[in-house]
Write a structure and sequence with these properties.
By secondary structure, the chain is an alpha/beta fold. The protein contains nine helices and eleven strands. It has a single domain, classed as 3-Layer(aba) Sandwich (Rossmann fold), CATH 3.40.50.300. The radius of gyration is 19 Å and the shape is globular.
Length: 255
Amino acid sequence: MSDLLRTEKLRKYFGVVSAADDVDLKIKQGVLTSIIGPNGAGKTTLINLLTGNILPDSGKVFFNEEEITYLPIHKRVKKGICRSFQIMNIFPKLTVLENIQIPILSLMNQSLSFFKPVSRHTDANDRVEKLLMEIGLVEKRDLPAGTLSHGDQRLLEIGLAMASEPKLLFLDEPTAGMNPVERIKVLENIRRLSHEKQSTFVIVEHDMDIVFSLSDRIIVLHRGQILADGKPEEIKQNEDVKKVYLGEEILWEKV
């Protein structure tokens, strides 16, 4: 299985604090990967480095064997790297359908226009319909996005990220703030989309139930370094990982 993304000796300091310390990482195509670690482990910093939100002090990032270390965010998106954020990032006054239309039309070098009815964007509308089916929101297409439940808004945000047809999609706590029913719906959609191999998903999560039920692979960060990397069962049994989580409830013992 090929490496979709990899890093070499990636480093980032904030003052004297090392948020990424010589990180050598490989993301395999088609492998649903979760990144976990205690608060302050460097999870968000690592995602920011990989997606271009911040630049490293040293080291390299490669995507499909092309170096992208200092490539701007918009150029990474065009190459197929996208992300969602902890904070909701949708257009609440637009309908669900209109939310999805905007990035798809942009991808096709088109835009919504007062002088061109939406119905005439035939190719774009076909792609919008397909994506709404994939994320499970086709029946709510005409509702204002701001009226959706929290879980459905998260699904819409994932749809917005997927509209750019990413090869690699980072999800930052995709089920944060959801009730159990919403959480199951979102997880089922992520799992299905991953199995269909449309995008390779990398998830940053704190909920261990989610991590161990969803992931093919888990990476554990601690103080800016990779402490462990393996399949869920391997991580559950890793003594170094358990020591890092001492003082916190080790939820996977109950999984």
